[in-house]
Amino acid sequence: MGAAERVKNFLKSKTFTLLCILVAIMAFFWYFSANHSFLSVRNITSILYSMVLFILFSIGVSLLVIFGEFDLSPGYVGTAAGATLATILSGTGIPWFLVMLICLLLGIVFGLINAVLVNKFRVQSFIATLAVGSFLAKGFSYIISGGRAIAIDHPVIDWLASYKLWDVVPVTVIISVALILVYGIVLAKTQFGRSIYLCGGNKEAARLAGLDPKKLSYLLFANSGMLGAMAGVLFASRLKSGNLDGTNSYSFPAVTAVIFGGISFGGGSGNMVGCFLGLLIINAFNNGLTIMRVSPNWTGVASGALLILALTLDYLSNRRVRRQIGGKTS
Amino acid sequence: MEKLLEFKNISKAFPGVQALDNVSFSARGGAVSALLGENGAGKSTLLKILSGDIQPDAGSVCIDGEDRRFASPYQSIKASVSVIYQERQLLGAMNVMENVFLDDLHEKFGIVNRSELKRKTQEIIDIFELPVKPTDIVGRLSVAHQQMIEIMKAYRRGSDIIAFDEPTAPLTDKEIAILFKLIRELKERGKIILYVSHRMAEIFQITDDIIVLKDGQLVTTLRTSGTNERELVKAMVGRDIGDTYSNLKRNEIMGDVLLEVKNLETDYVHDVSFELRRGEVLGFAGLVGAGRTEVMRAVFGADPIISGEIKLEGKPVRFKKPKDAIGSGIALCPEDRKDQGLILGRSIRDNVSIPVLSKLKRGLFMSYRAEEALAAEAVRKYSIRTPSTDKRTVELSGGNQQKTILGRWTSDKMVTKVLILDEPTKGIDVGTKAEVYQMIHDFAATGIGVIFISSELPEVLNVSDNIIVMQNGRVTGRVSRQEATEELVVAMSMLE
Ligand SMILES: Nc1ncnc2c1ncn2[C@@H]1O[C@H](COP(=O)(O)OP(=O)(O)OP(=O)(O)O)[C@@H](O)[C@H]1O
Ligand SMILES: [Mg+2]
Do B332 and A207 make contact, defined as CB atoms within 8 angstroms? Predict the structure, then answer.
């Protein structure tokens, strides 16, 4: 492929559309924010900080959506993990790293339950994960914590919540960015990542060509559960408490961001760059509205408008491509 | 008045290919006009332009002297044009009657009147002599029956212009005979019929005029009665390829038993036993639904086995999934390229490399160069018509899609002991067919056992060393190539 063609392809890509939206939003808020404070190091860090949990949730969900499945449970799993963390840390003498490991294992177990429902009992993943999340995981949070918030007082948790590299960059930002980078590379460059795309394109054909969609499905659901638990642990450490609502409300926004980032339902397409850009746009936008003191009553509507805009632009840019290939999308 | 369909100076380009270049010809009513050409010559594109599915860059379509430009298939159907596409367009989750009357459901039946719908569908089913019920779910029918339902859809509309794009590719002789009877009847009624096929014998059986395309250009138009196969092939391919079967360099050396299947029992097949030797080309003949595909799927680990024994190189094996079978040296090139073969949204390169991904790595990562080399080799070996290996397979012509799957299963990175080819020549052009036959025997010469399933009798009979005939999920006969005649095999596949 020649350089010219590569440039042409890039200009047609979703990544390019997303970059344009990002630049437009940045420019807008930079220009209109007091003292141009929108692009100050402090504010950029704060945008990244607001993305941390979303990144963790979205990585797992992205992989599943590319694979052709769906996951609505990780937000609830995060809550369960946070409650477990608080309960065990405050009630027993088990060392902190073991406790964290238990939390991650818990996430994996919930993921595997999802996978069993989807693979063995052929439940649609949308329904299965909603049920596992909003009933099983949520119920679990109540049971383990006895139905109340439990405070956490632990030096490691304090460190996790407040340590900043060079006094600027929170450690959780580094963790989340490192994770999405690693997952991005795995997805784009390795055999494992390729298998996800191929199965997402056509599971039966992939199976007959020697891939193992079932195994992959178990792995990806477990992975999504684990990342959800990880996010729940970080959330609890921020609050210094195992809260009963925890990260429940993160499930839908995480999915929205994934779709926003150009990873389409139906599977087989999208990438982590898009996922990251999608998250960045949404969070930068909300941050911009906040520092411009837009009433919170309006931010919901504004985010909705942004989402619609992005989807429309995506449709328009795709229509050009669609016409070229003679009315076929797939 | 005799009807007339004219294509005038049609051109159409896709990124990187000129699919049609200034093509003009006409087709008359009361005659069957064949469209002939190699894979990617532009036949299907021409039919899609006729139906309004895609728009030409230049040129026009005239019906009875009047310029018609259809913006969508909906419009062309309203103007009494029906195109039966190469790829099935059925709704798999719906039943036969809903599919057959799809575009008319609300208009003719208002609030859908099921008993009326059922009765009308049954009438058409009777005309087509099919063993299906109006209420059968289409997705569960065999590929051949699905194809017949696709044809019913068009037949039912009673259009003046009917175009068939490789209708017989998934059919066996029984359905083909019925189809031809119907086509002759439509011809009698003065309809304009366009007919695309890569099976030369059919062209002489059913068509009156022939239009030959090559690389998007019109080569010539002929009367069928005034030409012969050799001349046609030469016009299509651009050179004389001689007689396919007598030019075939056969492998004559057979070794010991490689694969042994004993009393295989699954949901679909019963008490199936056969042996395959090293270097043997074992043909499987039979009608649609005979169970040939199902036997192979079970051996390959794609379908569960109830009982029976499979031995590979003398050792009992039972594969739980295709991955394990491939790991042990069995390759199965599936019959249905759209659902079971290709991942349509991905490139040629991605599709070719799937079974050998682990051999195309550099360290932890996939090696672009190794994948590209593998795909380029497939493109070269099967002369796949494409501007690059980046092209998504959904954008390839039907025959080129088939070649891509063949490329996947016959790449030199595969370590194959048993190569199972299920209808491998479906939709590919005459020139490449000859190359596929040769490839089969070249593989056999290296000690590989090849299983060759085909519904095209001359092909199985001439290419295979031995032939197994199946019917209703059972083996009903086996013959060697020397003994085999078409009559004998047909008789074995229709025993009562
Ligand atoms: N939607 C598309 N996008 C890009 N290229 C296309 C598209 N459809 C067809 N082409 C290209 O146009 C050329 C002609 O394709 P067409 O399907 O008309 O061939 P055909 O004569 O029907 O071949 P076959 O015998 O294999 O069915 C091919 O090179 C094909 O790759
Ligand atoms: Mg075609």
Answer: no
Locate the chain A residue with the closest alpha carbon to B350. Answer: A198
The atom of ligand 1 lying closest to the CA of A326 is 1
Residue finishing a domain among B189, B206, B237: B237
Q: Are B54 and A326 an interchain contact pair (Cβ–Cβ within 8 Å)? A: yes
What CA dihedral angle connects A301, A307, A310 and A311, to 10 degrees? -120
- pLDDT-derived band of residue B107, with 50, 70 and 90 as boundaries? low
Q: Which ligand is nearest to the CA of B12?
A: 1
Q: With 60 as the cut, is the pLDDT of residue A329 above it?
A: no
Residue that terminates a domain, selected from B180, B208, B237: B237
Range A181-209 average pLDDT: 93
pTM value surpassing 0.90? no
Pocket around ligand 1 at a 6 A CB cut-off: A 325-326, 328; B 14, 17, 19, 37, 39-45, 86, 385-386, 395-400, 427
The answer on pLDDT for B321 being more than 60 is: yes
Interacting residues of A312 by C-beta distance below 8 A, sequence separation 6+: none
Burial of A296 (0-12, 13-18, 19+ CB in 10 A): exposed
The residue that leads in pLDDT, B3 or B273, is B273
How many domains does one find in chain B? 2
Residue nearest to atom 7 of ligand 1 (CA): B395
Is the same domain home to B166 and B269? no
Is 0.85 exceeded by the ipTM? Answer: no
- For the stretch A208-225, pLDDT in tens is 999 999 999 999 999 999
Beta partners for residue B466, in sequence order: B282, B480
B162: in domain: yes
CB pairs under 8 A between A and B: 86
Which CATH number belongs to the domain containing residue B9 in this structure? 3.40.50.300
Alpha-carbon span A261 to A251, nearest angstrom: 16
